Amino acid sequence: LSPGAKMGCFTFIKVMMILFNLAIFLSGGTLLGVGIWVKVDGESFLKIFGALSSSVLQVVNVSYLLIVIGAILLVIGFLGCYGAQKESKCLLMMFFSVVLIIFIAEVVAAVVALVFTGLAETLLTGLVTPLLKEKYGVDETFSQIWNATMTELRCCGLNNYTDFNNSYFYETHHGYPGQCCDTLEPCNSTLAAEKDVEGCFKQILEEIRTNAGVAGGVAAGIAALEIAAMAVSMYLYCRLDEK
């Protein structure tokens, strides 16, 4: 290619890099804002968007998840956009490094999820069950999310009704949530054992397996974008030496 054509190609890729990362930056700001909104006023969020059924997000703190993802996208978007605009090799290398770390973490997480499903279940149980004992019936937003989940998926707790043993709810209501007995009222251990309602973890896993194709496609798309972003940033980084 002639020097003019090379310069034109460089300029085009630089502009695309800026626009792409500007979109990422704005998306990160939006997610960060929504995360803060959910944290401050979770009830309004639930009323507008409804229950977060059929999603693994129901067993994690949605607000913190959105805040973390939003903050990461803000950093990536800023590094990529500002680094390309200023033609800064330092910022472009930082952008490349951050995206590479995230890409590696995603690959590791996918391998762990596929190979160590039992370990993942044990870890999730160890994290969520204490939250059910401490926060269910105390934190209104947390309780609303779990009530919606248990009602719509017709499940009880993460594993089963025993997750509520020695919990705040059990001690104050002298029984389990009504969903554990497939009723609207708190139920006792005899009826809960008789009904034997499945835990929500199995139901959520089933939903994930049902939508595994869509989730895999989205994951593959994200991975392709990350690889493309790293390739473009490295191209700009290398071309700066020739300018």
TrEMBL record:
Taxonomic superkingdom: Eukaryota
InterPro entries for the chain: Tetraspanin/Peripherin (IPR018499), Tetraspanin_animals (IPR000301), Tetraspanin_CS (IPR018503), Tetraspanin_EC2_sf (IPR008952)
Pfam families xref list: Tetraspanin
UniProt keyword Transmembrane, yes or no: yes
Transmembrane segments: 12-38, 58-79, 91-116, 214-238
Cellular component GO terms, alphabetical: lysosomal membrane; plasma membrane
Subcellular location field: Lysosome membrane; Membrane
Membrane topology: Multi-pass membrane protein
Keywords: Glycoprotein, Lysosome, Membrane, Transmembrane, Transmembrane helix
Principal subcellular localisation of the protein: membrane
Protein family (similarity comment): Belongs to the tetraspanin (TM4SF) family.
Complex and partners: Interacts with SLC19A2. Interacts with NTRK1/TRKA.
Function statement: Structural component of specialized membrane microdomains known as tetraspanin-enriched microdomains (TERMs), which act as platforms for receptor clustering and signaling. Participates thereby in diverse biological functions such as cell signal transduction, adhesion, migration and protein trafficking. Regulates neuronal differentiation in response to NGF by facilitating NGF-mediated activation of NTRK1/TRKA receptor tyrosine kinase and subsequent downstream signaling pathways. Plays a role in the inhibition of TNFalpha-induced apoptosis.
Record protein name field: Tetraspanin
Organism of provenance: Chaetorhynchus papuensis
